[in-house]
Amino acid sequence: MLFRGITIVALGVSLLGVCPMAAGDDVLEDDIGVLSDSVLAQLRDKKFAELDALEASLRNTKARFGGGDWKLYHFYDALSGGRISEDAAIESDWIEIIGQLKEWRTASPKSGVPSLLLAEAYRGYGWFARGKGWSETVTQNKFDVFHDRLNQGGFFLAESRRLLPGNPHWYAASLRLAQGSQLPKERAYSLFEQAMKIEPAYQHSYSVMAVFLLPRWYGEAGEWETFAEEATGRVGGEAGSAIYNHIVLTVARTTGSQSFFEENAISWRKVQWSFADRERLYGPGRRYFNGMCELASGVNDKPTARQLMKRIGDQWDQYVWRTRQRFDEYQAWLQTEN
């Protein structure tokens, strides 16, 4: 293994003996949504210079949302089709955003930002063609389109690295592209090590690598769990613990909360400790509060879920719940007896 385990320091106080709970007057602003709407509007208005300047500012200041997510990550996610992937996508959605990004690339030939966005967009466009089913359900024609689009993404990825070296998001984007490109696992680990030399606090590199190591992709049983322990242990303290929470919530969303604890060697108590450290370090954030609340259902921990829901109130997150109906049904379930 590349890492040697180091115990993560977690200094929690009490949510049923584990996580802290404040009065239910939190304002969990949807800051991620605000940023996404803003940058998409600027892209539509062809404000390319302003977008380049914003990216540089977010990258250089290492700005974060409440909860610790890097604003840089959500800048790239929104502008490369993240909203499209979450909604009921149609072909014209992808054609439109790729066309806008190519126009930006032409207008700003020295900027590596539109190239990296195009790499991410072509990856999403490839998965749109392939679909999310198991490989045996995908036709050869869909596979051909999928790989062609990933190859186009690889071209733009290489161009971006040449134009804008040292961008921490480049490595997360590379690992995401590698997931569909059947990159050998050893090379993925090498990419992750390079990412750590550039920016060890960029938590999104950790979560992308953990997903890569799921058994459904390229890992062995228990490998992503070991990776999460050892990689975040290298950071240590509350910062490492917060990254651990981010990894777990990302993987849980990928695999589904209901079966998460049955299929993965993860301690719910440790997840709670990491949640407490994350809040202490970065404050409350709408997305990860909602994610923790949903994850509690995987161990039928209604007391914890109820306390979280008191703080969430009506501040639901569409990324977590998908629909308001599902959120409302979850609230109703919490009102039932154990």
Q: How does CATH name the architecture?
A: Alpha Horseshoe
- Measured on Cα atoms, how large is the radius of gyration? 20 Å
Mean pLDDT: 90
Strand content: under 5%
Largest sheet: none
CATH topology: Serine Threonine Protein Phosphatase 5, Tetratricopeptide repeat
Domain count: the total is 1
Shape: globular
Structure in words:
This protein is an all-alpha fold and 338 residues long. It has one domain: Serine Threonine Protein Phosphatase 5, Tetratricopeptide repeat. The protein has 18 helices and no strands. Helix 1 packs across helix 3, helix 8 runs antiparallel to helix 9 and helix 10 packs across helix 12. The longest helix is centred in the middle third of the chain and has 24 residues. The radius of gyration is 20 Å and the shape is globular.
Name a few traits of the molecule.
single chain; 338 residues; mainly alpha; Serine Threonine Protein Phosphatase 5, Tetratricopeptide repeat; 18 helices; 68% helix; 0% strand; disordered N terminus
